[in-house]
Amino acid sequence: MSDSGTVFSPLALTGPLSFLPLAQGDVDYDTASRQQPGLLDHLLDQDGTGVILVRGDRVAVPRGKGVLSGRTGASIRLATLPATYLRGPLAGSTDRFELPCYYLGKAGQQAWLALDLNLVCAHRAVQAPLRDLAQAADQRFDWLALREYAPHGRPRQVGLATCAVALSIWHERQAFCPRCGAPVHPCQAGWAQICQGNASGDKHTLFPRIEPAVIMAVVDGRDRLLLQHNRKWAPGFRSVTAGFVEAGENLEHAVRRETMEEVGLNLGEMRYLGSQPWPFPSSLMVAFRARSLNTNIRVDGEETDEANWFTREEFGAALASGRLRIPQAASVARYMIEQWYGSEL
User: Fold this and answer.
1) 201, burial (CB in 10 Å: exposed 0-12, middle 13-18, buried 19+)
2) HSE-CB of 315 using CA atoms within 13 angstroms
3) Distance from C-alpha of 10 to C-alpha of 195, rounded to nearest angstrom
4) Which fold has domain 211-341?
């Protein structure tokens, strides 16, 4: 069925998303300093340097605060340590490796580091005092996944946590060079890896891979929103359409292709809404709202098994009754749905 006869475009008043939970950081990355010899040692010697703790996709928060995750209006700060606290445990703790820290940048005059406890445990060159510190941190703090923490953190701390998690996951997953299979070691204050070289002596620098993905709120001429159910999701859970960008493909083509593949809809006009990192493990979510030129949904049956159009009244009633569940507050999908609906949910 075509979507003809509409005079006023449902995208006419669509603007960028005013808030994206993982795109809040205001820290200066200070990229020019990353290759300075002894940078991490120098920062640890500065009294004002702050340190946060990361383990893969989890960050440390003060003991007892983890239970506040998921509570509306609850505020949770990161657990932070002064760099001076780490001077003893980090002194002489490594051999060939850089210190198990990432330089996250500067906020004003204050520098920020992330101590990666996964990196601490992975390297044999790390000495006992630092390993003891890592074990104590597991007991001394609560640990929240970034998705749990982000809705409750202050913007600057959410930005720090997002960078730290992205780097921690990358280092954890890439212990060997994808080109030659040789071991890799962190360099450039954690933002790169140096390949240790193959039989021919080839050494090169590796950087984190970023995988772009598009996510789109598809509406029809009546401004109804399309919500779909993936076969892997729990019953009742719905979200907007999304998918990875193919090699050699631009974002707009990916929006149209993914929508056609998953729900069989042709798209016309589209608007860019914003983007945010999604380090699970390495995505960048690029958000659009797009108008469908037809309303006859045809799900692919493989990835998507159900999809429906919702008016705001139908959506509100389904949500209130519990028949419908939507993405959590850390995801861009949640804010795309709220933007269409017209209020927080």
Assistant:
1) exposed
2) 21
3) 51
4) Nucleoside Triphosphate Pyrophosphohydrolase (3.90.79)
CB 134 within 8 A of CB 118: no
Q: What is the spatial distance between Cα 42 and Cα 33, in angstroms, rounded to a whole number?
A: 11
Burial of residue 294, with CB atoms counted within 10 A of its CB: 0-12 exposed, 13-18 middle, 19 or more buried: middle
Q: Determine contact, residues 54/191, Cβ cutoff 8 Å.
A: no
Peptide bond into 281 cis (omega under 30): yes
Residue spans per domain, the chain = 34-173, 211-341
Q: pLDDT per residue over 210-233, tens digit each? A: 999 999 999 999 999 999 999 999
**Measured distance CA(131)–CA(128) in Å, rounded:** 5
Three-class DSSP category at 81: strand
- Is the omega angle on the peptide bond into residue 82 within 30 degrees of 0, that is, cis? no
Summarised one tens digit per residue, pLDDT across range 79-126 is 999 988 887 777 665 544 567 899 999 998 899 999 999 888 776 556
What's the rounded Cα separation, in Å, for the pair 82 and 113?
Answer: 10
Which residue bears the tokens 């798209």? Answer: 267
